[in-house]
Amino acid sequence: MAFQFNFSIEEDLENKLTSLDDGTCVLKSQKGKQDKKQSTEQLGTQDHLCSSLGNAAASEDTDSPPQTTDRSGDSEAQNKQPSLKPAKEHVLPKDCNQVLENKVLEMLPGPLHVNTAVVKTISLKEKFPGENIVSKSFSSHSDLIPGVYEGGLKIWECTFDLLTYFTKAKVKFAGQKVLDLGCGSGLLGITASKGGAREVHFQDYNSLVIDEVTLPNVVANVPLQGDSNDVNEPDGKRPRKSEIGQEICKCRLFSGEWVEFCKLVLSEKLFVKYDLILTSETIYNPDYYSTLHETLLRLLSRNGRVLLASKAHYFGVGGGVHLFQKFVEEKGVFEIRTLGVIDEGLKRFLMEMTFKHPVNMH
Ligand SMILES: C[S@@+](CC[C@H](N)C(=O)[O-])C[C@H]1O[C@@H](n2cnc3c(N)ncnc32)[C@H](O)[C@@H]1O
After folding, report:
1. Which residues line the pocket of ligand 1, CB cutoff 6 A?
2. Of 198, 157, 152, residue with least CA distance to 174
3. Contact yes or no for 290/328 (Cβ under 8 A)
4. More confidently predicted of 185 and 138
5. Less Cβ crowding at N or C end of the chain, within 10 Å?
6. How much distance in Å is there from the Cα of 282 to the middle of ligand 1?
7. pLDDT (tens digit per residue) in 95-110
8. How far apart are CA 117 and CA 22, in angstroms?
9. Which residues contact 255 (CB under 8 A, 6 or more apart)?
10. Which run of H or E residues covers position 275?
11. C-alpha–C-alpha distance, residues 193 and 201, integer Å
């Protein structure tokens, strides 16, 4: 399957890269270490480091999580708890066109039922000088660093599995309120909005991911509410349905850790729960299962459903479908069932979760 990368690899960096047998790219000087290593870089052999390498010396996650623990100390204890990275909403800029400045758009290849453009970020270097999540990810040879960078800069394989499932199963988005949880590129939410969702929220752990990847992708693909994407704008100011060819979908973007994200949205007086929560490759770390489960429990509407895509197992981090399924079953709140198994390359699963006791609508 072809992958679309959001970051271009700078020439000098590219020259230092060498390919391993599994398609992974590593720095030539680091190949020896890589041969011995069996850790988080095994998080999916096909969607790998190359995507997060571009501009490796580049940006800074402008609001890195407050480090509640010293990561150089007892790493096992620290990894047990996701850092409580505060959540915030990323307000859409008045002039959305600005978001696409310095961005190169590419159409996603493959048999997707919607035309989706994704951005290649030319250079984050000037915008975010200094240390950053990209270079941290690069220097630790990892697609993610728990509590610091959770992998949203690239498009992970299971996102494409869910997109294919949407088409095959004719998933209905019309009129729904949708959450793309752990959105990264935001392709799931973007597809929902193209399918007529009334409102789509995007959440990613990292603020930089939202600003530099999700937001540009949303702006490039979703007709937004005038310049401000504000449904409260007087009708006369909004582009009419006929002008844009589809219903306007209200999009909101959030960064931060799941518990904090829940707190933020649930603090809104008029908050309405989600009809559909889409989530791809978010169950790799068993330490997060509790907060993820709690998030789904608190944010899903009683008759809503979660569509989740995951690899069978994430080497190095230890999570995977079976472990998560067991966790959910033990909690006893949701039904969890398998919708499909993709048995090429690394085995992957599509799962559905619904409340065991939905509200009787009649
Ligand atoms: C491996 S990436 C997958 C990105 C995207 N869904 C895809 O399939 O391409 C995992 C995503 O889950 C989110 N995530 C993981 N753990 C999280 C946590 N504890 N709190 C908030 N977000 C988290 C991160 O934002 C990250 O983007």
Report:
1. 82, 150-152, 155-156, 158-159, 182-185, 204-205, 257-258, 280-282, 288, 291
2. 198
3. no
4. 185
5. C
6. 5
7. 888 888 878 888 877 6
8. 27
9. 63, 85, 87, 88, 90, 203, 204, 205, 206, 207, 209, 210
10. strand 274-280
11. 10
